[in-house]
Write a structure and sequence with these properties.
Number of strands: 0
Oligomer: single chain
Radius of gyration: 46 Å
Helix content: over 70%
Mean pLDDT: 83
Structural class: mainly alpha
Strand content: under 5%
Largest sheet: none
Number of helices: 1
Low-confidence stretches: none
Shape: rod-shaped
Order of helices and strands: H
Distance between the termini: 137 Å
Length: about 110
């Protein structure tokens, strides 16, 4: 009886071992996929963080640029005003003449 039952038992054990190995391979393959997806997601998060930092830096630079443009416009206005005042003082503006002191009078306004 042991000779007849022997091959059947060993065949059943081999079948069971083969199923266990197949299950372990599937489990190992699943773990590999989970790790691969986790690494890819970590990469996506890292790229998003880098882009966010870059956008924050660009926002700061754009604000500084806008302030500088305002400062330049203000300085240009001052320069233009200074040039105009200088031209008036020198009499370079056409149509302006020095007033005759004999024909001018002082008007006192009430407080």
């Amino acid at each position: 009886m042991s000779s007849i039952a022997g091959p059947a038992v060993s065949r059943a054990r081999r079948e069971q071992n083969r199923k266990q190995l197949a299950g372990r391979r599937l489990l190992a393959g699943g773990v590999v996929w989970i790790v691969a997806v986790a690494v890819l997601l970590a990469g996506v998060v890292a790229v998003n963080v880098a882009v966010l930092r870059s956008n924050l830096n660009l926002d700061g630079v754009n604000r500084q640029r806008a302030r500088l443009k305002v400062d330049i416009a203000s300085l240009q206005a001052k320069v233009a005003s200074t040039k105009r005042t200088d031209a008036i003082i020198r009499g370079a503006t056409p149509g302006l003449v020095t007033a005759d002191p004999a024909t001018t009078s002082i008007v006192n306004l009430p407080h």
